[in-house]
Every structure is written in C-alpha cells, then in structure tokens.
Specification:
Layout lengths: L7 H4 L2 H34 L1 E6 L4 E4 L10 E8 L7 E4 L7 E4 L8 E4 L6 E4 L9 E8 L5 E10 L4 E6 L12 E6 L6 E6 L2 E4 L3 E3 L2 E5 L13 E6 L7 E5 L9 E6 L4 E2 L4 E8 L6 E6 L2 E2 L5 E6 L2 E8 L9 E8 L2 E11 L2 E13 L12 E10 L4 E6 L2 E2 L8 E4 L5 E5 L8 E9 L2 E4 L3 E3 L3 E5 L4 E5 L5 E10 L4 E8 L7 E2 L5 E4 L2 E6 L8 E9 L2 E2 L4 E7 L7 E6 L6 E6 L9 E8 L5 E7 L4 E3 L7 E10 L2 E2 L3 E6 L18 H30 L12 E3 L2 H4 L8 E4 L4 E5 L5 E9 L6 E4 L16 E4 L3 H12 L7 H11 L20 E6 L6 E9 L16
Parallel strand pairs: 1-9, 19-27, 37-45
Antiparallel strand pairs: 2-7, 3-4, 3-8, 4-5, 6-7, 8-9, 10-11, 11-15, 12-13, 12-16, 14-15, 16-17, 18-20, 20-24, 21-22, 21-25, 23-24, 25-26, 27-28, 28-32, 29-30, 29-33, 31-32, 33-34, 33-35, 36-38, 38-42, 39-40, 39-43, 41-42, 43-44, 43-45, 46-47, 47-50, 48-49, 48-51, 51-52, 51-53, 54-55, 54-57, ...
Helix pairs in contact: 5-6
Length: about 850
C-alpha cells in the first residue's frame, strides 16, 4: 500500500500563509517599482540634452519634442527635475494662445518662451548659479498623449584670479619647481598653464583641495631674465583668462666685458677715462681693475649698475711710464665664482720726445785727436716716433755732406751722425733735436774737445820799434791740452838762414800766452821774431811770426766815402792804412765850410764814424787823420751837403674814419647822380641827332662868326677853323643849343690849312675824313715840321707833330715848338654836319688854335652817329 507524505499546505497554518503571500506580493511590487524607476532614470539620462552657459550670460533651453502627425501642441509646461509643480508654462490653446507664466521665485522675470524657434526654447536671461538644474519640458497635444524632453543646464563660474607663490629665489641655472601658480575659484575647475614668450611651456595643472595649481617644471636658464613667465587660468572659451606675470630671478655670470678708452692714443699729462662695461650678470657683476698685477684703488673708480649692466670708469692721468702697460678689468658674480670674465687693454700714451746724445765712438772721447773719427747717436724716447731729428754743432744744423766727411742718418729709428777725420774745428757743443706731434725736445749739451797741437791765434803782424827802445811782443796760441812750452827765435834781415835762439830769460809764459821783452840795439837787430809752442801732441806746424821794423808814423787812410746823408747828419767810412808798426788811432774832424766852424772833433779807435746835430742844407768839410806814437799821417779830406728840410713831408693831421652811415649815403648819392647823368646824356644825344641840316659845301677854310663861341676873330690872331660846311647847328660844351652859325671865307685867318692827320695817320682830304687844323708859318708849327724832318723829338703842338710824322717819316714826332709853348686855352667845340653823301654823318672836331707866338692843338676825337 502506498504511503503519502504531508504537503506544504498541510504544514503551514492558514493565517500564516496569507501573511506570507502578502509580504511576497509587496516585495515583488517594490521590486517592480524600483525597476521602473531605474528604467525611467536611465531613459532620462540618456535623452537629456546638455546646455552650458557662463554665469551672467543669457541662454536658451530647447524643448526638443516633435509633434505627432495631424496634431498640435496646446500647452507647454517646464518643471525642475521630477517635481510635479511647473515653474513655467506657455498656453497655446485657442483664445489664449501665446500666454506665458513663470514662477517669480525661480526666474524673477528672466524667463521667456521662444515659440518661433525650431525647436522652441525657453530663454533665461542673466543666468546665475541657482539656475543650474535638470529641466523637464512637457508638451500636451489635442488628441495625442503628452510628451516629455529633458534638458540639463550647467552654469560655468570662471576663476576670479591666479596667485603666484615663489618657493626659491634667486634660482640657480637648471633649477625647477621654484614657483607655483594657483587659480582661485572657478567651476568647473579651470586649467592652469605656464607660458613664456607667447608659447605654452608647462600645461600640467593639478586640481587640489585649495583649487587648481601648476608648479613650474621648466629648468631655469639665462634667457629667463629677458623673457618673463605668464600663468593663465580659464575654464571656458567665452571670458578672457585670468593671468599673472612672473619674473624669474636667475643667478648667472657676465656674458661680456669690454674696456674702452675716452681717446686713442692717450696724451701725457691729460686726464683720460677708461670705461669697463660688464653685461649679462645677475646680480650685477663686481668689477675690479688691475695694473701690472696690482689692484687699483677704488678712489679712482666710479661704478654704476643698472639691470644686468655694470659700468666702471677709471680716471687716469697718463704719463710716459704708463705707455705699453696693461690694464685688466675683471667682472665676477659672487654667487658664481667660476663665472668670471676679464678684458685687457695695452695703454698707448703719446708723449713728447726725450732725447739724449751719446758718443758711440771712440770709447774715450776725452782722448780724441785730430784725424780720428767721431760717431754720435741721438737716443730718442718718443711716442709716436719722431718725424724729424736734427743734429747741431755750436747752434748750427749739421747737414749731410759726404765730401766734408759728415754723414747724418735719420731715416730709420736709429739717429746718428758720423764725422770723419775730425779737426779742431769739430770741437764744441753738440745737440740733437727730435720732434713729433706732441712737441720738440733738445738733448743736453754734449761738449766734444779735439786734442791738437798749438797754433797761432793771430796772423803774422808787423811790430815797430826804435833803436835802443824796449818793446813787448805778445804771442798767443791755442792748444788742447793747454799745457804748452814756448820758445822764441830771431832771424836777422841780413842773415835769414841762421835764426838765433832767444834766451828763456827774455820772455815770460802765462798759460797760452808768451810775452817777449825785446830791445834792438842796432839796425842788425831788426828782422823776424818767431814764437814756437808745443804740447803733448807735438809742436805747432807754423810758428807765430812778428816782423820787427823801425817804428814810424802811420800811413794815410784810404777809400773814404760819405753815406747816409740826412738833414742833420752823415756817416763817414774809411779804411786804415799801415799803422807804422805801432798802435794807431784816428782823429775825426768836421767843419762848416762856409764859416770854418768846427762842429765835430773826436779821436777814435776806428777809421769810420757818424755825426749828427748838423744844420739842414749846409756844406761840410770832413778830415780823417791816422795817429800813432811816432806821429800823424796826412789827413784825408772830403765834403758833403746835408739835405733840405722838406715841410711838405710833415705828417698831416689824421682824418676820422667815415662812419658806416656816411658810406651808405655816399653810395645812394652816387647811384642817383649816375641815373640823372644817364638820362641827360640820352636827351642830349637825341637832340643832336635831330638837328642836322645841309646847305652847300666849300673847299676853302672858313671862319666861325658866332661870338659866344669864338669871339671876334678879325681883331685877333686866334680862331676856330673846320672842314668846310656852309650852314650848321651850333652847341656849346654842355650840349645846349646856340643857334645857326654861318661859315664865311676865312679872310682874317688866311694861314689856316687842312691837315688830314688828326687821327695819327695819312688819310685823303675827302668829305668823309676827319680833319684837324693848324696855323701855317707859326714858329711852333715850323719848328715842329723841322723837328720831324730831322728826326728830333720834342714837345711841339700835336698838329705839328703829326704833320712832322707824315712829311718827315721820322721817329721824333714833333719839334720843340719854341720856348713859349703853352696848352690850349679853350675847350673843344663840335659842329654836327652832314657830308656830301646822305648816308655819312659824323662829328667834326673843331680845333681851337692859340693866336700867340706859339700854338698847341688839342687831340681830336671822333664819334660816328
């Protein structure tokens, strides 16, 4: 038989089962609700559109719902999230279409619906952070179910500023993370980047508890001193990013050091400045000057610093000792001992020459003798090198002359002079002169003494003495060394072959001088005395000679003349004759010749003299007489006449210089006078050209009867003659009209003739020629012709002179014309006439002839109209 176990239903009591079923149903229902919520949330998140806006800007939330076919929306509602209470509505039902409503606590009047857009959208103006929500848009239709769209509004808040915090400064080259830039504020968190020279160098930012920050990870370099860093923070592309600038303080050494001089070359004793400039060091470099390895004191240095440039100015008064010295400027950064730079300059100092004259040969110049060679060298210390070096001997420049044994060499940097076979004349003081652009310099005197044997100072002389009279004869020699020994000899005129040695007791010696006390006892004791001297170099070549003769009066002076004669004085010059063997003097005397009054009397050592204080325009007698102890010579006499006192040569009183105003007035007056004169001349010429008339011509010489021009010629012997015209218009010398003058037969002056040589040459006497007139038979004209024919020059009348040339063909020109020749006593007068040809018009010259015993005609002139 089968057995059946108990069932569940049997196991559970009835009330408990019911409760279990209820709980299970609740669980299943809750699970299903959670599932639906999760499904709804997923759908909402998936279909929700995102709109971002920067706080304070306007934005629109689209309601992206497509209307069903054949249906239209009647109401649009906006909710915040899943709230059941709308915050905005837009009514599209008929009769109320276009009405909107907004929750005043949410939008505060900032919301508007833009139904014309596709899709329609709700406009929110001036958004704030409180506007950031998930919005739900529900659209109700006439016949269809309502539809929902989700929109998330995100409001962006830009960062307010950036803060830069420096951890390390200054920074060594290569160091990193010395500065941090942090953005303050901003939602969402902004991006913080570092830029340099417009380029992003570190974009890595980190979001921390205190905001977004970026630690600069770019290694420090020298370029950071020139290009600062910029930290920028932003979280949108609408507003400008906030930024801050960071100047990185990088420690680095100098990049260059340079020394410059204020002038080149430097000039001795003129203050100069040397400037040392160091660039690139941070902090600014410390500059130190060194000279010859020693530090120059800061008292002479002026230092200025600006940015990364340090300038040190060294004040220096250079001297010749500074030339070619080296100056060093060292730039160093105390923080970087290894980053040291230097610059060096060699000083070029210009200075005047310093000269020193030395003997190059011989080694012992104090022992030089005649015939040896001398070599001198001029040692010159100068910068720049001298452009000129000269040698001087006793103040006179030495010139290169190989013939004379003088070789001067100054073409190279060695300056020498060589003297070959020197003599005693080469002794003296030597100097050298060097010149450059800074000046000239002479060397100290170098004295050269050439040793030589004794020689006579004076030429052979004649000494006069009387028999039995003692005479002192002095012998002077020159020698080097000056220690000499003298001896004397005598050679009689009767026995010149055998000189006699004079005893040393008869003469004395004093250095280079020896004096012989000699007394001739008879005529045999007159002759030639010789003085001999010797030193360590030998005896003199030729002894000093003295001719002893019987003393007598001097000879007469010779070659006397008078010169420089003035109103008050004169100079008399004479040459002395033989002195008679004794010292002579000269007696000068001057007398006034007319009265014999002595005006000058003096005895002088010389034969020439000058006198003054004489009278003008007087004759004087001069006498010059030579005198010695034995008597006087015959006097030499001559005469001279002083000049006249010329009063015309006296100085006139000076006139004051004209003032500038006087010059100006003078110029103005001169211009006015010139203009007026030109106008008058034009007017006068025009009047003369319009007054020509012609009546008839005659061949005879006629006379002009116009009294105001010529006077009455019938009672006199002078007149005006011209080439024949019958009627003409007459003007005076000033060109004023004087009326018509009639020409008649020249009965009162029959000796007038036509001379066709007025222009200086023979021309035919035709109506178109120029003529002058002279008087026949007059002594002046006759003498002129005679002088011309005989070729004798003279001062006769011009007409006669020209006639003489034509007739006599002689170079003389004219004759004397007699003794009473005088100048013409009247002005020229001109008559304007027309010749026989109607095309030829000229001025005829009317020559006025003096009617006295002698006449002279003025030189004519011609003007062709």
């Amino acid at each position: 038989m089968l057995c059946r176990g108990p069932s569940i239903r049997d196991a559970w009591p009835q009330p408990a089962g019911a409760l279990l079923l209820l709980v299970g149903g609740l669980i299943i229902a809750h699970a299903h609700g959670d599932y639906q919520d999760q499904k709804e949330k997923h759908k909402r998140d998936t279909d929700t559109s995102l709109v971002e806006v920067v706080a304070g800007y306007n934005t629109s939330l689209p309601c992206a719902i497509q209307s069903p076919l054949h249906d239209a929306p009647v109401l649009t509602l906006w909710y915040i999230g899943a709230d059941d209470t709308p915050v905005y509505s837009y009514d599209q039902r008929s009769g109320v279409s276009g009405e909107s409503w907004a929750d005043p606590e949410v939008f505060e009047g900032r919301a508007h619906y833009l139904a014309h857009l596709n899709p329609p959208a709700m406009l929110i103006m001036r958004t704030t952070v409180s506007d950031a929500h998930v919005y739900r848009c529900r659209v109700d239709f006439h016949n269809s179910n309502s539809r929902v769209a989700w929109v998330r509004l995100r409001v962006i808040v830009p960062p307010s500023r950036v803060e830069i915090v420096t951890h390390v400064s200054p920074v060594m080259p290569g160091q990193r993370d010395d500065v941090v830039c942090t953005a303050v504020g901003g939602d969402p968190p902004p991006s913080v980047v570092w830029l340099q020279n417009g380029k992003v160098v570190d974009p890595n930012s980190t979001v921390g508890e205190r905001g977004t920050f970026n630690s600069l990870e770019v290694a420090a370099t020298r370029e950071d001193l020139n290009f600062p860093f910029t930290c920028k923070a932003t979280n949108n592309d609408v507003t400008a990013p906030v930024f801050a600038i960071y100047y990185r303080n990088v420690t680095c050494g100098p990049t260059s050091v340079q020394i410059e001089a204020s002038e080149s070359p430097l000039v001795e004793a003129r203050e100069a400045e040397l400037t040392c400039t160091a660039v690139g060091s941070n902090p600014p470099a410390h500059l130190t000057w060194y000279q010859q390895g020693k530090t120059i004191e800061d008292v002479y240095v002026n230092v200025t610093r600006q940015d990364n440039v340090t300038v040190s100015v060294l004040s220096l008064i250079p001297g010749r000792r500074h030339h070619d010295r080296q100056l060093l400027c060292r730039a160093e950064n105390p923080s970087l001992p290894m980053a040291t730079m230097e610059d060096m300059i060699t000083l070029n100092v210009a200075y005047r020459p310093v000269t020193r004259l030395e003997v190059g040969w011989p080694q012992r110049p104090d022992l030089m003798t005649e015939g040896s060679d001398l070599y001198l060298e001029c040692i010159v210390d100068a910068n720049p090198h001298p452009y000129k070096v000269k040698f001087f001997h006793n103040g006179e420049e030495m010139v290169h002359n190989e013939t004379a044994g003088v070789e001067v060499r100054t073409a190279t940097t060695t300056y020498t002079v060589a003297l070959q076979r020197v003599t005693r004349r080469n002794s003296g003081v030597y100097q050298c002169l060097a010149s450059n652009v800074e000046g000239d310099a002479y060397s100290a005197n170098l004295t050269i003494k050439i040793k030589y044997a004794p020689l006579c100072v004076e030429a052979a002389t004649v000494v006069g003495a009387g028999v039995g009279e003692r005479t002192n004869i002095t012998c002077r020699v020159d020698a080097d060394p000056p220690l000499v020994t003298f001896s004397w000899t005598f050679r009689s005129a009767a026995n010149r072959l055998r000189p006699r040695q004079i005893s040393p007791g008869e003469f004395s010696t004093d250095g280079l001088t020896s004096t012989l006390s000699y007394r001739p006892l008879s005529q045999r004791d007159f002759g030639e005395l010789s003085c001999h001297a010797e030193n360590t170099l030998g005896s003199m070549r030729e002894p000093c000679s003295f001719s002893l003769v019987t003393a007598g009066p001097p000879e007469k002076v010779i070659n006397c003349s008078v010169s420089n004669v003035t109103v008050l004085g004169a100079t008399v010059t004479c040459l002395p004759g033989f002195n008679g063997g004794l010292a002579q003097r000269f007696r000068h005397e001057v007398w006034l010749e007319s009265t014999g009054e002595a005006v000058f009397n003096a005895t002088l050592p010389g034969a020439s003299f000058s006198t003054s204080g004489l009278r003008p325009d007087h004759r004087y007698l001069v006498s010059v007489t030579a005198v010695n102890a034995r008597g006087a010579a015959r006097p030499h006499q001559l005469r001279f006449h002083t000049l006249k006192q010329v009063t015309e040569h006296l100085s006139l009183p000076s006139r004051p210089e004209p003032q500038p105003l006087v010059w100006v007035l003078g110029v103005v007056v001169g211009v006015v006078v010139a203009v007026v004169g030109l106008m008058m001349g034009l007017w006068w010429t025009k009047g003369r050209r319009s007054s020509h008339t012609l009546r008839n011509t005659e061949d005879d010489v006629t006379k002009l009867k116009n009294q105001d021009l010529t006077g009455d010629l019938r009672g006199q012997t002078d007149g005006l003659c011209m080439n024949g015209v019958v009627q003409h218009t007459i003007y005076d010398a000033s060109g004023r009209y004087k009326g018509f003058g009639h020409l008649q037969q020249c009965g009162a002056y029959p000796s007038c003739h036509i001379d066709a040589t007025c222009s200086g040459g023979s021309v035919p006497a035709t109506p178109a020629s120029r003529f002058s007139f002279s008087k026949k038979g007059g002594r002046g004209a006759a003498a002129g012709k005679e002088g011309a024919a005989e070729g004798k020059g003279g001062r006769g009348s011009d007409a006669a002179s020209h006639a003489g040339k034509r007739n006599g063909a002689s170079e003389g020109g004219g004759g004397e014309g007699g003794e009473g020749a005088r100048k013409p006593d009247g002005r020229w007068r001109r008559v304007i006439s027309q010749l026989s040809s109607p095309h030829e018009s000229r001025f005829f010259d009317i020559c006025r002839l003096a009617g006295g015993k002698h006449s002279q005609q003025s030189q004519p002139s011609e003007s062709v109209l």
